[in-house]
Amino acid sequence: MADLVIGADLGGTSTRVALADADGALLATASAGGGNPTSHGADRAAAELGIAVKRALDGFDPRRVRAAVLGVAGAGALDDPGAARLFDEAVGGSGLAVRPDFLSDAEVAYCSATPRPSGTLLLAGTGAKAARVRDRRVQATADGFGWLLGDHGSGFWLGREAVRAVLAAIDGTGPETSLTGTVPGRLLDRPLDRPAYRRRYAVIRAVAARPPVALAGLAVLVAEAEAAGDEVATSICDRAAAHLVRTIGEVREPGERGPLVLNGGVVRSPHSPVGRRVRRLIAERFAGEVLTPADGIAGAVWLAVRAARPQWSEERLAAIHARLTGA
Amino acid sequence: MADLVIGADLGGTSTRVALADADGALLATASAGGGNPTSHGADRAAAELGIAVKRALDGFDPRRVRAAVLGVAGAGALDDPGAARLFDEAVGGSGLAVRPDFLSDAEVAYCSATPRPSGTLLLAGTGAKAARVRDRRVQATADGFGWLLGDHGSGFWLGREAVRAVLAAIDGTGPETSLTGTVPGRLLDRPLDRPAYRRRYAVIRAVAARPPVALAGLAVLVAEAEAAGDEVATSICDRAAAHLVRTIGEVREPGERGPLVLNGGVVRSPHSPVGRRVRRLIAERFAGEVLTPADGIAGAVWLAVRAARPQWSEERLAAIHARLTGA
After folding, report:
1. Domain ATPase BadF/BadG/BcrA/BcrD type, which positions (chains A, B) (predicted)?
2. H/E element holding B298?
3. Percent of chain B as helix, strand, coil, to the nearest 5
4. Is the minimum CB–CB distance between A204 and chain B shorter than 8 Å?
């Protein structure tokens, strides 16, 4: 019976598991509920993982699995020995004979973009962080402190700056902006036809009534205003890109030439306002190819193939990477 | 029977009410629980106000009260007609024949510092805002957006910057600082004897486990580190003062010479690290006397005297102000 491998992507919205042969050819995929142990709790996330692994293995002998690599959003929670044991048990309960390898989502995202062992990852979605990758492991990170403490240049940050710009325009301490129309329209259920001091209070109260991370939902309004030429939105995008490139600079070593992997809704597309600016600043400041990752599950499967076939050449593994990621 | 006035200070921790004669001589004081309608809810805050007013009036005929001025922290909540009615009823329930005048805590704090009608207030405690005062009313404000959206240079901001500096030092992306010892000591119940990636996660998790405003409690560690010569803490205090003076500049008009009133734990003392820096920057940039307010209740009583005695000269009222505020 041929060897099998498992690759998985445990994210905030779903847990996805792929079963492949040792050449990385997919045999089965399965999914279950959100698997981020930090946001969902380790016990709930581990239970979802157990369900998804069992589904993916349905009809296959679990003892044929030679390696399992799981990329985990919120992997910091697995520093807790109790949480790590729950995750080990969730996979072990399927009858696997190998111990799974839990990596951070950053490591798996990086490996989904490139077979090269060392480079830099910028992740800018709701949050923002950069990671220095060496031998496919995160060696150092910058920012990623969360919305309360940092994540400068993230979707959350863009939304918060949009509200700040609106409040400054209402107060008369900042320039006029089209965001003054669109942001309160998204936050409130009635028009802002009140005097300034009431409008400012209504906006602050509307933001306070929602979970703070919901501010990330306003980032799209900044992008729309920027596309329409709004100067305040343009300045917000300029500052976001400057923050993100500064964060990259905190982990990227001088003279480094490895790939620069951009992931997350704020920077993934080269056509988005911040993604465009970040690429321009990167070209001015750093050497190295700019890449975006394929689906995280491709990187996880590829890492599992590497683990199952340590004797294979890098050329052979790179060809499998290209096939898995559609490159 | 001689006329009476009421002055009150409704804050987050207590509701304090003073009864005085028309010359501002205090006859009775009373207090009740927190009276901030934004943080406590309008019904609970109004109930505490009703209790405190009744206590202050105990033994006096409420129909003798000619004016009542109440300074309200979180006064924006009274824009809601339902909340305003609850507050009116809470005072009216004591049998007062006059309608109370609800002012913002900023207006009362300003009037507690000076009898002059126009100037600038900087409030920097847990939050931070500046107000342009004209004829003893707030005409414009800057910042005061709350910890989620702004309050740059506030106690919250100082505490957050302290944690950010610790995370950067742990990550190796920022300079070493003595805060790396003191801040985690305050946040965690065990020493940080773990590898860097675990320490960073432990600090972020400890902050996330508390209410965000609890970060303001770390501001004192910044002041201690600054006093001991820590360069990172010094830089945080420099930036806090620059933020606060920029916020003043957003409401203070060019050439304005009215008093500059500093209130709140971050700036009140001229010996505190941020208070010292703010005074130095103010002296460089603005004309006008720098003052700190007396107890807010003094300003409220004085404004009630003004309302009860519109025919009195400013000289006479200024003398009453000096007596009430101990100036």
Report:
1. 6-304
2. helix B296-308
3. 50, 20, 30
4. yes
Asked if A48 and A132 sit in the same domain, the reply is no
8 Å CB contact of A149 and B167: yes
* Statement to judge: residues B135 and B256 lie in one domain: yes
The domain in which residue A217 lies consists of 117-293
Asked whether the beta carbons of residue A171 and residue B197 sit closer than 8 angstroms, the reply is no
Residues from chain B that touch A142, judged by Cβ atoms under 8 A, are: 171, 173
Q: Is residue A212 a part of any domain in this protein?
A: yes
Q: Which residue of B has its CA nearest to A80?
A: B198
Residues 208-227 of chain B with CB under 8 A from chain A are: 208, 212, 215
pLDDT at residue number A190 = 65
Helices (H) and strands (E) in chain B, counts: 12, 10
**Which of A148, A218, A253 to probe by mutation at the B interface, max B CB count within 10 Å?**
A148
Do B244 and B132 share a domain, yes or no?
yes
**A272-300 pLDDT, tens per residue?**
999 999 999 999 999 999 999 988 899 99
* A78: CATH: 3.30.420.40
CA distance B284 to B180: 34
Is A239 a residue whose pLDDT tops 80? Answer: yes
The answer to whether position A129 is within a domain reads yes
- Asked if B37 and B46 touch (Cβ cutoff 8 Å), the reply is yes
Residue A246: closest C-alpha in chain B: B173
pLDDT in tens, A173-232: 999 999 999 998 888 866 666 666 678 888 998 998 899 989 999 999 999 999 999 999
Q: By the CB < 8 Å criterion, does A25 face chain B?
A: no
Instruction: Enter the ipTM.
Output: 0.84
Residue A272 CA to residue A266 CA, distance in Å, equals 7
- The verdict on a CB contact (< 8 Å) between B164 and A149 is yes
pLDDT at A196: 63
Residues A232 and A316 in one domain: no
Strands A290-291 and A137-143: unpaired
Which B-chain residues 112-151 have CB contacts (< 8 A) with chain A?
A: 138, 140-142, 145-146, 148-150
The predicted model gives A89-94 an average pLDDT of 88
Per-residue pLDDT, A192: 61
Q: Considering its fold, how many domains does chain A have in total? A: 2
Residue A122 C-beta-side C-alpha neighbours within 13 Å: 33
**Residue A197: per-residue pLDDT:** 64
Q: Are residues A163 and A288 in the same domain?
A: yes
Dihedral (C-alpha) A310, A315, A316, A322: value to the nearest 10 degrees?
120
pLDDT digits (tens, 9 = 90+) for B234-265: 999 999 999 999 999 999 999 999 999 999 99
Which of B38, B204, B218 would you mutate first to test chain A, the one with the most A CBs within 10 A? B204
